[in-house]
Amino acid sequence: MDYIDRRSMKKIWWIWLFMMGALSTLAAAEDLTQQAEKEYRQGKYLEAADTYKKMLTEGQESAQLYYNLGNCYYKLGENTQAILNYERALLLNPGDRDARYNLQMAQSQAVDKIEVLPEVFIVRWYKSLVAYFSADQWAYISIAFFILFLGMVALFFYSSTAALKKTGFTLGIVILFFTVFSVIFSVKQYRRITERDYAIVLTPSVTVKGAPDNSGTSLFVIHEGLKVKIIESLGEWVNIRLEDGNEGWVAKRDIERI
Predict the structure, then answer these.
(1) CB–CB of 73/224 below 8 Å?
(2) Would you state the CATH architecture of domain 198-257?
(3) What stretches of residues are TPR repeats (predicted)?
């Protein structure tokens, strides 16, 4: 009996330590958040940015944190860093209208104005739909649709009239269709977050090469703040594609992944 009591006390002790550690972590995070918000209100944008970056190093990544950090850099006149952090905020929360508006404001000050290749309406609509919600939000939507689908299955099997059975069958097929697509959209958004194949140019002026080497043919010049897609990597070089379809190689040090 004493052995059992000692084991129980040990479990309680470890649970208590875990709870105390979690509470202290939450308290520290809240203290840093309040500190950063106070520094921002006082116009100490550099100090606020440093506090937000400290929170990131401690693993407190969130769309709101990146948005706040972007605001700090925008106030400091560091437009490229503002763009980078607004993009990261939108990566985690595509529906953040404030982050999207501020990103557009920051991008309006960038040097390069790239003409986007026209897309078929259905493709453009599809991409907008996928990006409207985050991976977690699409996952919740798929769960909700699946629960509705189970309800329609129950309606089909347990209804006493043919009309209700037909309704359950028809709606069940439609809801299953939405469930499958919600799962697909969730996976696509999750891959966007994990793969992060877009980047922001950090160097004021970069000459894009035709080969992954300094001796490669110079193709064109791009400037800081420009968003590019990473196609492949080779050593210290990456092959990038612009929104107008142009491609080439730049050094890894010239860009930072979103």
Answers:
(1) no
(2) Roll (2.30)
(3) 63-96
Q: How confident is the model at residue 14 (pLDDT cuts 50, 70, 90)?
A: low
What is the DSSP secondary-structure string of 175-214? HHHHHHHHHHHHHHHHHHHHH--EEEE-SSEEEEESSSST
Cβ-count burial of 193 within 10 angstroms (0-12 exposed, 13-18 middle, 19+ buried)? Answer: middle
Say if CB 249 and CB 209 are below 8 A apart: yes
Residue 44 structure tokens: 């100490």
Q: What is the 3-state secondary structure (H, E, C) of 9-70?
A: HHHHHHHHHHHHHHHHHHHHHHHHHHHHHHHHHCCCHHHHHHHHHHHHHCCCCCHHHHHHHH
Could you tell me the CA-to-CA distances from 13 to 2, 3, 18 in Å, in that order? 16, 15, 9
The three-class DSSP label of residue 105 is helix
User: For residue 115, what is the DSSP state?
Assistant: P
Please, are residues 199 and 240 in contact by the beta-carbon 8 Å criterion? Answer: yes
Residue 200: which of 229, 221, 237, 232 has the closest Cα? 229
Contact between residue 144 and residue 254 where contact means Cβ atoms under 8 Å apart: no
Q: Give the model confidence (pLDDT) of 155-184 as tens digits.
A: 999 988 999 999 999 999 999 999 999 999
pLDDT band at 211 (very low <50, low <70, confident <90, very high): very high
